[in-house]
Amino acid sequence: MLEFEKLNRIVLEYNKFIITTHVNPDADALGSELALYYILKKLGKQTVILNHSETPYNLNFLDTEKVIQKYEPEKHNILFSDFDAIMCLDLNRTDRTVSMKEIIEKSKLYKVCIDHHQYPADFADAYFIDTDYAATGHILYNFIKATNIVSLDYKISVNLYAAIMTDTGSFRFDRTTPEIHRIAADLLEHGVEPHLVYDQLYDQSLLSKTRLLGVTLKSLKLAGPNDEIAFMTIMQEDFKNLGAVESDTENFVNFGLSIQNVKISILFIELKNGFKVSLRSKGNIHVNNLAREYGGGGHVNASGIRIANEDMLEFIPKILSKAESYL
User: What is the mean pLDDT of the chain?
Assistant: First the structure.
């Protein structure tokens, strides 16, 4: 059981909050940030959202008041000595904030971690982590209901809905429980329109993203015993040629799992200064443990790795070989 009364005391005790999340934020990360921002705003708290990454274009609809800022050291570092607390959402390691890692670790702000991933690092003063939750937005919803700290309104509800809907795979992953459907129904009672949220998230892609998906699928190969591993690659040249961006690759890795007999899908993405790997699996195949071997992490069936200043092509056969041992 999460100590929601403790979180309630922290929120009421402090007055000036920084909210942040992980690099390349998804809808759970941004939706949770914005939901917490509106909770704190209702309480009269001074709050700023700072992220390492720009907000992906398909998630801009959530930030209607344009309150999310991209972290700039010369502009924002003063806040880390002037404010009271920093709320780290949907992450459990400071390296997931990339450029903000050092300032967060050095700061004397009271640090709070709210998350639903395994194996947290030791960096915060208070942790509210439970891997049984479907999303960080799910935790925040239960926090509101358990404490009655504020009442739900449309702005909080639409962000929590986007967070929960996306992290449950549009309510199809095994973490989709009767409770999740009851939560979704409650959020709909506050004005959320599911078809509009889905349209903004998934049906408003730029042409460059669709073309990048085509290139990615063309690269798909099978590996391992009985072709149980699907893997795809995206090179920096592909982004440049198509005018696409890293956030366009969200959910591309899932296409590998749609192939008959495939149990692990891996997407290798070359970055300007290294590469990232998205891992997905079926059943009791713990790709989070595979990710941890390379300094990454995540959920049992959905995890990631990010490696700086290394050649992706040299690592592909090594990671594929490791993946075989998890089948």
Answer: 97
